[in-house]
From TrEMBL, chains A, B:
Main location as per UniProt: membrane
Classification via NCBIfam families: sulP (TIGR00815)
GO molecular function: secondary active sulfate transmembrane transporter activity
Residue spans crossing the bilayer: 26-46, 66-91, 103-124, 130-152, 159-177, 183-201, 221-241, 274-298, 310-328, 348-368, 375-392, 404-432
GO CC terms, sorted: membrane
All copies of domain STAS, residue ranges: 458-574
Membrane topology reported for the UniProt record: Multi-pass membrane protein
UniProt keywords, alphabetically: Membrane, Transmembrane, Transmembrane helix
The keyword Transport appears for this protein: no
Name of this chain's protein: Sulfate permease
């Protein structure tokens, strides 16, 4: 199933599936490609607009990257291209360096895709995919929800036909509010109708198609192409009434042709200032891509290789940079559609790329009369499905630390932008994790009568011995919590003059670092000075291996016991 | 033993020991105070010189802080005052803002003591003592060793009688080397003799005194006062030959009198730039103080309260700031001497303060002819005992992550100074800890024949079932490692078509955060989609409490088993 190249060589998963490629696979892939192409055309145009780029750039970013991903990707069904959150992050990063709409803006966006591609490729070749694990789910959830709200707010001005700016939610809403006297009625009418139609497509089109006789699956897939209908309808309407002459902003002239050959700006100072945004875009894109890839692969008992995905996404972004595109990643919605439509192999991605290529060759003149407000409506409907306040409620019930991380990420992202929000969320969740492990649960345990089990004296009725203190440390011992154990033992020894033995049950200790080893040595020494013995029980193999490389066991005043019960019995006998 | 004030009130431990104060306690405390005073006079002068301050400031810093500590401190024997590492950090921090020797320099040092006092007091009242736990032992060890080397190098110029600067080890050594043509012979002779005498005092004086008939303990204590002999001898010699006239730098005129009433500079911009150094000084001072305090308290089965120690050290530093001193903390060497000399209560500290007060009132004229080179020799001998390269060897053998932390702290401190070294060390050790827990040990377990034990299939000969995958996760499940479990299970499911059940043994899982809960839900869902069941066994009480607050258990495709053996038996029976 999964023959691998030597670990130092990037694998070419395409060699695996291409070998068994057959006619019926081709047909299924082609059908899926048609549906995904219809879905991807409006998305590509809209996300280019969200990123502040000309619409054709969105089409270009949906050709070469798909071809490269088909060659390198380990997921059978992932569909790459522009996605909402990454487009928002692109706009935020590029906006620092150039004015939207300028040639420099596009050149910086291309450079950002190039850097992001290099970073992803390097992470993949160095097998650094684990970096993405430091984005906790609360942080991702808070970030995605905030991004959805920011994106929706950023489209308000286009829906209303006003000019407004703003770098955070409050600024954006205030700027639009200040322009409330200048709302363009016809634009608002087109935008609102597009919104209403698209929301109806989401809810009402599938039942309607089913009532009209389509199978549930066909109806569901056809409904996914609904945005195309909105775009065709709005374009025809705008052409018919000559909306541009009435002041409705249109997409306008879109160059017709193949994606151009481009290159990034070779400017080291620019690279340095784009490094952090490129890293964040890479990590966020990778996380989105790998989540959907894993979920879909598991449904068919397949799997994806996260490090190979990094290589494939890196290649896709490099391809975007050299073909006039901007940062791309595997999109959630379109990959699910690809899967549901029956795509079997990445060849579906190749066919999709061909479809988009035809669109950019032939279709662009037809886009002249497409109102920007309709694209904005497409974006708003897509991103509002990302907004999920349920995570706040769930984490509030489940764990306050996680709730704090969601809330902080959400608030900082809304107030200070996507990059600050991510950095604050990751930093805070790491601190909260460290804080929690630095406050370990240490239970005093005693024997459950009639068994060999030892449980917390505060939760159970258990038998204890006055001369023996048995403690179970519920955390790996490391520098941030080693002193908590010292404090606990010091306190117990000072309070109980009859104490003669301390037994540390180590079943939940997965590691003991050098600081904790020093602490254990200090505890052992102090107990010895005070005439007490320190014992360990149920030490795990890997921890025991480590302890045997130190002097600790030679100085230990007591013994290491295989089970806690053996220790308790032997000490009870010795103390009479 | 340990009556406590309400938790929101700072306790006054002095009320406890003062109640039982008796005549024989008084005599023991007084004797200890005499010895500590003799030790503290040269140290106070030397550490003031190390901090770039006039010698009398060292004496002032050893009066009021001791009185406050005696009132507030929870250790019976801790001796506070200027210490080497904190003095070096003071010099580094204050040197950024004023020229050494200027009035502004002293004012900034006083402000630093004030801020450090406020920080310590706040940490104590807010019970934030755990912050100090994030200084791991490898970081402390690397930092102390590097500081010792830096301090010794900084005294070279004084020992040789040349002018030289430098902010790191290489710069200091290079600056001294560049001045090698200007070495002052008589200064070098005095410095070298002082060094030789002090090293001999450390090694040879105690045996000599024992041969002369003193008891070993008396000989040991008398030897601790050796530096006073060096200072008296060097002063008399320098006076006799009028060394000052021959170009030997002397301490010179030291004001005679009580510690002055001073106050910090009320300058918010200065406070802001001193905040980080003050925080680092506070944490380092607290760690040094609490380590020695705990070690000594445990020897008499007493204990100290870390949060109360913060309050006491905060008060001591505020006292230093208002009485012409600089940052102080509990010193290692002098506390051990105090303990060995038989100090019973903090009253010994009060008597020591009185002794130093007399010295600053009466003794200062006698210090005029004291050569600075002799003070430098005192410092060098004291700090070289801090240098410990053994930690490098021990951590290399014990754990490479800890070794990396020691080495990085050592190198960065030597190359870029004390503050960078600490920050780099703490940051690196946190990252290494996170990295380790993000790469958890996940063992596949099987039944040890004839027992109810389940062990790692790679370490033991065990019985497994083809339809059941039993995994033991040796780490709490949190965001950074949750995906590792997903990957492991995905891989196993893809490789073993016969698999029907996955059982996760949770005995070493001390927490499951919201990300890990999502991962478990995703694993459960994917296994269900592929026709497999997920089971948990041996889930701890606190973790079970948390899971019951979520939906997870309702969606779980398998069961939660009390013991792993029950799960294995039931699944074997079910699969026939």
């Amino acid at each position: 199933m999964n023959p691998r190249a030597p670990r130092w060589l990037p694998a070419l998963p395409a060699l695996v599936w291409a070998r068994d490629y057959r006619r019926d696979t081709l047909l299924r892939d082609a059908l899926a490609a048609v549906i995904v192409t219809l879905m991807l055309i409006p998305q590509s145009l809209a996300y280019a607009q969200l990123a502040g780029l000309p619409p054709e750039v969105g089409l270009y970013a949906s050709v070469a990257p798909l071809l490269v991903y088909a060659l390198l990707g380990s997921s059978r069904v992932l569909a790459v291209g522009p996605v909402a959150v990454v487009s928002l992050m692109t706009a935020a990063a590029v906006g620092e360096h150039a004015a939207a709409g300028s040639a420099a803006y596009l050149a910086v966006a291309i450079t950002l895709a190039f850097l992001s591609g290099l970073i992803l490729l390097a992470m993949g070749l160095l097998r650094l995919g684990f970096i993405a694990h430091f984005l906790s789910h609360p942080v991702i959830s808070g970030f995605i929800t905030a991004s959805g709200l920011l994106i929706a707010a950023s489209q308000l001005k286009t829906l209303l036909g006003v000019s407004a700016g703003g770098h955070n939610l409050v600024e954006m809403l205030a700027a639009v509010w200040a322009q409330r006297g200048h709302i363009h009625g016809l634009t608002l009418a087109i935008g609102a109708s597009s919104l209403a139609f698209l929301f109806w497509v989401r809810r009402g089109l599938q039942p309607l198609l089913q009532r009209l006789g389509l199978s549930p699956r066909a109806a569901e897939l056809a409904a996914k192409a609904g945005p195309v209908a909105a775009i065709v309808g709005a374009t025809v309407f705008a052409w018919a009434i000559d909306a541009g002459a009435h002041g409705v902003k249109l997409v306008g002239a879109v160059p017709q042709g193949l994606p151009p050959l481009t290159q990034p700006l070779w400017d080291v100072a620019l690279w340095q200032s784009l490094l952090v945004p490129a890293l964040l875009i890479s990590v966020v894109g990778f996380v989105e891509s790998v989540s959907v890839g894993q979920t879909l692969a598991a449904k068919r008992r397949q799997r994806i290789e996260p490090d190979q995905e990094l290589v494939a996404l890196g290649g896709s972004n490099l391809a975007a940079a050299f073909s006039g595109g901007f940062p791309v990643t595997g999109g959630f919605a379109r990959s699910v559609v690809n899967f549901d439509a029956g795509a079997q192999t990445p060849a579906a991605g190749v066919f999709t790329a061909v479809g988009i290529l035809f669109a950019s060759l032939l279709l662009t003149p037809a886009l002249f009369h497409l109102p920007q407000a309709t694209l904005a409506a497409t974006i708003v409907v897509a991103v509002l499905s990302l907004v999920d306040f349920g995570m706040l409620r769930r984490t509030w019930v489940y764990a306050k630390a996680d709730f704090t991380a969601v809330l902080a990420t959400l608030v900082v992202t809304l107030a200070a932008g996507v990059e600050s929000g991510l950095v604050a969320g990751v930093g805070l969740s790491l601190l909260l994790h460290l804080w929690r492990t630095s406050q370990p649960h240490i239970a005093e345990v005693g024997q459950v009568p009639g068994t060999e089990h030892y449980r917390n004296v505060q939760r159970h009725t258990v038998i204890t011995q006055p001369a023996v203190l048995a403690l179970r440390m519920d955390e790996s011992l490391y520098f941030a919590n080693a002193r908590a154990l010292e404090d606990r033992i010091n306190a117990a020894v000072a309070e109980r003059p009859a104490l003669r033995h301390v037994v540390l049950q180590c079943s939940a200790i997965n590691d003991i670092d050098a600081s904790a080893l020093d602490s254990l040595e200090a505890i052992n020494q102090r107990l010895r000075d005070a005439g007490l013995q320190l014992h360990l029980s149920e030490v795990k193999g890997p921890v025991m291996d480590k302890l045997q490389r130190s002097d600790f066991l030679r100085h230990l005043s007591g013994r290491v016991w295989l089970t806690h019960h053996q220790a308790a019995c032997a000490l009870a006998a010795a103390e009479g």
